[in-house]
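Query structure, 357 tokens:
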């Protein structure tokens, strides 16, 4: 930005001086500016889709690399290393094509934009020399005029480079704002209910729900009393996990009603609802932080005694003590330094520490 500002100020200062010396000569020196402008517009139109494609292809390569690093045990256990290498090679080939195309466009247009300004120098020396011979301007003025012309040419040397950076930034920002500008479908009502404590009565009344066009729940009705333990069993894909997600209001039901202590789920504030519900997922997600911080994730202000108590209740305390730094041991990305059972116990301890209603 400072370099561009300096170049623009130099351009303005030099242009004013050149016009004051000789108007016709100044206009002749700037004859290439319209061509530069047209080429710049063309470059922008070509660069943006290529920049967007580059970002997309880089994302594809990153996803494949990430999946293979995190799923390396699965890849090796099924002897699919060659297949994954070929998959990565195909993604890299697509990225290579886009980047080569971008370089081709840049290599063609940037030299044109930069060197078109040289036409101005040619006109200055030819036409300016004739003016000197005719005695209309002094030789010293022509030399100074040419020096100022170099100051005018400086912005053009930055223009192609700046256009490339601008379009790449625009493409990157577009992909980011696709996520940032996405609005949540789950919204609180203005007169939402904030519940301090829950007794624990849960009612599903004629609940229907579908993922897109795939029906999952049809007319489901049941009731769970406070302090009652209920197990939901069924075939794979029958909607067991979906019931928990609907209860946490991760999705809106299509028909029917879900009530907690007689209050419709849609009337309860989402954050307030989540404060009263704790989940232990099939595959607990652990952050790349210490074991203590993972257990205390739902209650960052929990004391060490409370963390240890929750770990003991989940029968995780013994294996935590055997780790290199105990509760301060960093578990690594997604907790893959721990076994599946250990991750599950930490997930249980995290839910117990929250002590939901």
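Result returned for the query:
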């Amino acid at each position: 930005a400072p370099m561009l500002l300096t170049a623009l100020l130099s351009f303005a200062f030099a242009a004013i001086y050149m016009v004051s010396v000789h108007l016709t000569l100044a206009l002749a020196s700037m004859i290439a500016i319209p061509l530069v402008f047209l080429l710049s517009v063309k470059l922008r139109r070509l660069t943006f889709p290529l920049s967007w494609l580059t970002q997309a292809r880089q994302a594809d390569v990153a996803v494949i690399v990430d999946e293979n690093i995190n799923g390396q045990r699965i890849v090796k256990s099924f002897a699919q290393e060659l297949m994954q290498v070929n998959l990565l090679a195909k993604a890299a080939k697509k990225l290579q094509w886009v980047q080569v195309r971008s370089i081709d466009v840049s290599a063609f247009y940037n030299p044109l934009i930069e060197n078109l300004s040289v036409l101005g120098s040619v006109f200055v020396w030819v036409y300016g020399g004739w003016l000197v011979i005719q005695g209309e301007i002094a030789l010293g003025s022509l030399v100074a005029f040419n020096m100022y012309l170099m100051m005018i040419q400086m912005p053009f040397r930055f223009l192609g480079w700046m256009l490339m950076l601008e379009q790449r930034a625009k493409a990157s920002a577009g992909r980011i704002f696709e996520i940032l500008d996405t609005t949540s479908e789950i919204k609180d009502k203005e007169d939402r209910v904030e519940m301090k404590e829950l007794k624990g009565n849960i009612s599903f009344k004629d609940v229907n729900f579908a993922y897109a066009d795939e029906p999952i729940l049809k007319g489901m009705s049941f009731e769970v009393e406070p302090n009652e333990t209920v197990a939901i069993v069924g075939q794979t894909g029958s909607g067991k996990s979906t019931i928990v997600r609907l209860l946490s209001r991760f999705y809106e039901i299509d028909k029917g009603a879900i009530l907690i202590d007689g209050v419709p789920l849609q009337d309860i504030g989402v954050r307030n609802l989540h404060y009263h519900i704790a989940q232990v997922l099939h595959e607990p997600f652990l952050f790349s932080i210490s074991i203590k911080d993972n257990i205390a994730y739902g209650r960052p202000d929990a004391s060490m005694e409370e963390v240890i108590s929750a770990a003991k209740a989940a029968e995780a305390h013994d294996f935590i003590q055997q780790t290199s730094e105990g509760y301060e041991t960093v578990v690594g990305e997604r907790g893959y330094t721990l076994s599946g059972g250990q991750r599950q116990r930490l997930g249980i301890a995290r839910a117990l520490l929250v002590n939901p209603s």
